Amino acid sequence: MSNSKFLQIHTLTSYPGTLLNRDDAGFAKRLPFGGSTRTRISSQCLKYHWRNFKGEHALYNMDVPRSYRSRETFQRRVAKPLVDEGYPESLVLAGTFSLIDRLLSDKQSGKNEIKKLIRPDEGQNPWEQLETSQITVFGEPEMRYLRQLLSEKLDEFKEKSPAFWEADGSVSDDAIEDAVKMMQEFSKKELKNNLKALRTASGLDAAMFGRMVTSDVLARGDAAIHVAHAFTTHAEESESDYFSAVDELRRDEPEESGELGAGHINSTEIASGLFYQYVVIDLPLLVSNIEGVSRNEWDEADKALSMETIKSMIHLIATVSPGAKLGSTAPYSYAQCMLVESGSAQPRTLANAFERAVPKNGQGVLANSYNVMGKYISEMDRMYDLQLERKLAAVGPTELLLEPLEMDETVSVRNIADWAARQAGGE
User: Fold this and answer.
1) Which of 246, 277, 327 is nearest to 40 (CA)?
2) 38 pairs with which residues across the strands?
3) What is the rounded CA–CA span in Å between residue 394 and residue 9?
4) What is the CA radius of gyration of the chain?
5) What is the pLDDT of residues 255-291, one digit of tens each?
6) 3-state secondary structure of 28
7) Are 40 and 31 in contact (CB under 8 A)?
8) pLDDT tens digits, 86-142
9) CA dist., res. 257 & res. 248, Å (int)
10) What average pLDDT score do residues 34-50 get?
11) With 50 as the cut, is the pLDDT of residue 1 above it?
12) What angle do the packed helices 111-118 and 89-100 form, to 10 degrees?
């Protein structure tokens, strides 16, 4: 039985003539490393495209709760559904606002704040009060629980103060005072315990990539999947692409405007490169986050969903490209090399194999990258006596990797995905 704690995923992927990830000025992101400037793809960019991919092996093809990353989650996933069900808008807004304060700030909403939502000032849009100051990460199970919690409170309140449900909309000051008190009664302890008890409470996204919270009510989620910035194994290769767009009516009917030629002229940067990418999956933490158990209990938990998640991630890492400038660069490429390592030792990147930018001559960038990566792995194995199980999928001169790694053969990415999932399952 495997006692692996970590999966380390290393890939080499070539992209010719693309602009995969741009900085604030519209240029390719870069990274100085080992005395050379490299082209870079940020980890945030990579994770975004893996999370949101909708084709084969998409994460949400699985029957699993999703996460919502938005400033409008409470508006869209708590308040609006309840209003659509017929609950009074003023009470729904006040209750949702009170939940936001309790969940995100760990505080009880003030009376005046709640009153202004029940009876807003002229010209005020109370829905804006439900928009959080920054993007939050919540799972569908959490939203479902909060809707149920608020609806039950409103059903109970309707028996005491039906005026809010009456057509004329006339509500006394006493009824508003009662509503304010009701909205302030959300129990911190009850919220915390019930949210913690939900399976995959914060959704698959947060279980994989974590979420940061400052409130004691919500469970902070440490990322179980760690993603490094990808960078080229060689020095950057880029150029400015000058382009024009032809105004076809001016071209075909110049007598109408008296002008010929381009309707638009501009330039953009495009780059080419072989990118090294590194991902680590903390198996105990992934199972713990998905199943809602402590990290120490991960080995006894149901691992079926974690195994499916790992399978999907292996395929996504190998095949899903950052999707910038699709129409003009078709930036689709599959990894030419995927090395996956399983073990319990502290993970270590292979990025330092490329500290000296590999040359672009001789056998070519891919072969030169294989050479330095194979040598680096072999030297690190000897230095630390690393005991790792490995699977390799690769094209090209694979002997440059197989020999130093003392491996007999390459396998398919599908074979690696199945094998990696079994590591989480303890097989």
Assistant:
1) 277
2) 31
3) 13
4) 27
5) 666 666 667 777 778 899 999 999 999 999 999 888 8
6) strand
7) yes
8) 999 999 999 999 999 888 887 888 888 888 888 888 778 989 999 998 888 888 888
9) 12
10) 95
11) no
12) 150
